[in-house]
Amino acid sequence: MGLLKGLKDSISRATDRLFSDEEPKRIGIYGPPNAGKTTLANRIARDWTGDAVGTESHIPHETRRARRKENVEIERNGKTVTIDIVDTPGVTTKVDYEEFTDEMEKDDAVRRSREATEGVAEAMHWLREDVDGVIYVLDSAEDPITQVNTMLIGIIESRDLPVLIFANKIDLDDSSIKRIEDAFPQHQTVPLSAKEGDNMDEVYDNIAEYFG
Amino acid sequence: MPHQCTNCDRRFPDGSKEMLSGCPDCGGNKFQFAPATSEASDDASSGEATPATESKQPADATATADQDPASASATSGQAPDREWPETARRPAEKDGRLDGSFADESPAEAGTDAMADDFEWVNGEEDDAQATARSDVVSPDELPRTATDTEAVSSRTEGATTDASDGTRETDARDRPDDGRVVSEPETDQPSIDQLREELNQQFESIKIVNPGQYELNLMELYDREEHIVSLQEDGRYVINVPESWHDS
């Protein structure tokens, strides 16, 4: 893309937003711990802004505070959709420091556990107050029918929030997209691997369509 | 009396509905929780309403009252249900003093203000530790010179001043025999962590502390709560953020 065209597009986007009453929609990335929420948030943010959102880790509850990446402009089919991405801590009904003791000292594990609990409380608060739409991320190699998933999707539905279910980690051998589609047939399921960048075009098409 | 506004330090009894619409005095919407029976080992300078800081208040009051007999009955008799006194620091003033500058205020005024602030009770409720400590009057022999006493209250409560005699005041405050005794008193009835945990669980149906570092969460309750839990501690304290909409309504 030439410099002039880039500049023109940038001015055009700024003008569009200037005359638009709509604030960017806040899209919360929700899901259980270790589903790949931060990896997805980083993938989206890097693809469209060049920056990352947060640190990824194989240890659950790496994200213990909601993080927001504002004004992520996603271009699809000549249109630009601007959203704020909110990467939230993994939601769970139990947090146990013993999950982390293989990776760190007990004191650190206990602290991580407490912060993770606060993070879940914060994530639930954001769901109530601060999100306009939800990307619900699931590990497609895991059974999707859990108390947490059922309850959270029920809450999201009760609020009439637009929701996309992302079947993440399709690069894993145990991945099953159908298992997720069968569990939540009322919602659009999008397969992807945020880590490998697989099927991201379909991901962005759906984000633009649902949240644009 | 487990709730305290983190902005102006106003305290609220357990179950008070006043705080539900934000602090009536300063409009602050962050409160911290300090169980009436919580342990006294916390640093008093943290601003949390621990029994240590509470139990110091009667000693301060007694000391100051002893200095000024005319105000003695007023201090001990009216403190529990006193409204914001004329001499007390207003929240706005307090905010402006966060840099620790009190150079424009005489030591006596500072001491009176600090005392009044500590005794700003809302519904006339006073916990047991407070009542016991209040009735346990120190003898005049135990008190330092009255001229420095008010200054000691000032320096201990406010921490930092820009007065030239600041160092002397700090020493006076630390050397007071009653000061050290009062601080250690609450340890005698220090509750166990299990009791505190149980107390927290009663407060929070949404988060249950099974053991330190082990939690069970009621997602529906967390979602239904309008206030936001921003900090959770093993010793039973918590900080919540009251929504602005509560304050506005």
TrEMBL record, chain A:
GO terms for biological process, alphabetical: tRNA methylation; tRNA wobble uridine modification
GO molecular function: GTP binding
Classification via SUPFAM superfamilies: P-loop containing nucleoside triphosphate hydrolases
Pfam families in the cross-refs: MMR_HSR1
GO cellular component labels: cytoplasm
CDD domains tied to this protein: Era_like (cd00880)
Boundaries of every AAA+ ATPase domain copy: 23-176
Family annotation (InterPro entries): AAA+_ATPase, GTP-bd, P-loop_NTPase, Small_GTP-bd
Protein's UniProt name: Small GTP-binding protein
Organism encoding this protein: Halovivax asiaticus JCM 14624
TrEMBL record, chain B:
Region called Disordered, residue ranges: 1-194
Biased composition (Low complexity): 36-50, 58-76
UniProt organism field: Halovivax asiaticus JCM 14624
Composition skew (Polar residues), residue ranges: 147-165
UniProt protein name: Zn-ribbon containing protein (DUF2072)
Top-level taxonomic group: Archaea
Comp. bias regions, Acidic residues: 115-129
Classification via InterPro entries: OapC-like
Pfam family, one: OapC
Record's compositionally biased regions (Basic and acidic residues): 8-17, 80-98, 166-184
